[in-house]
Design a protein that fits this description.
Elements (H helix, E strand, L loop, with lengths): L12 H15 L4 E4 L9 H10 L4 E4 L12 H6 L5 E4 L2 E6 L8 H6 L8 E4 L8 H13 L3 E4 L6 E5 L2 E5 L18
Parallel strand pairs: 1-2, 4-5, 5-6, 6-8
Antiparallel strand pairs: 3-4, 7-8
Length: 187
């Protein structure tokens, strides 16, 4: 999931839609959720709390998006709530990168030093929307090692390959911002 843009407002359409979809995921038997950022509309702590409330019955991993750090007053608190996401599915590593500013940090580059074919990387920003040096670094990684890269931020579906790496961009859940089709959960 991605791009919920939850304000601190239980009466918002974003809140209603997200909670409806959380119930749908429960009915569908989902147990783990990966979120590709933009949980909040403008870095609202209350929006982040609503997100955690909706996903209390799931194991969930998330990365920060640009909307999550828009408020200078809450930026550090919001970023502090996003721990480096990393887990395994069988022999595949699943690694989350916080890219709210469109930058892949040196710390995350070190985390990806041992990425292997078949691993999954998830982040918020996508190719062409990151700062140029980070964009090139991720492109080089994708060309060298066949991985799957999941991203948000574009509010529309992307599906392409860089060499043998599969890149999938997810359409967001904010009903006001999904482009090209309805907001959706990606299974």
């Amino acid at each position: 999931i991605c791009d919920m843009n939850l304000p601190d407002d239980r009466k918002s359409p974003q809140y209603a839609f997200f909670f409806f979809l959380a119930e749908r995921m429960k009915k569908d038997g989902v147990d783990t959720v990966i979120c590709l950022g933009d949980i909040t509309a403008f870095g609202e702590i209350g929006g982040l709390e609503l997100y955690h409330e909706a996903l209390k019955d799931f194991t969930h991993y998330e990365v920060a998006g640009n909307s999550d750090v828009r408020d200078a007053a809450t930026r550090e608190a919001i970023l502090g709530s996003f721990q480096p996401a990393e887990f395994s599915i069988g022999s595949r590593s699943v690694i989350g990168l916080n890219t709210p500013d469109g930058v892949i940090t040196e710390t995350d580059r070190v985390r990806l030093a041992n990425v292997k074919p078949g691993d999954i990387i998830f982040l918020h920003h996508y190719f062409g929307k990151m700062e140029p040096e980070s964009n090139q670094w991720l492109t080089d990684l994708a060309e060298a090692t066949p991985v799957t890269i999941l991203h948000g931020h574009g509010h529309r579906h992307f599906d392409f390959f860089i060499n043998k790496s599969h890149v999938l961009g997810m359409r967001g859940l904010d009903p006001d911002k999904a482009i090209g089709n309805f907001p959706c959960i990606n299974y």
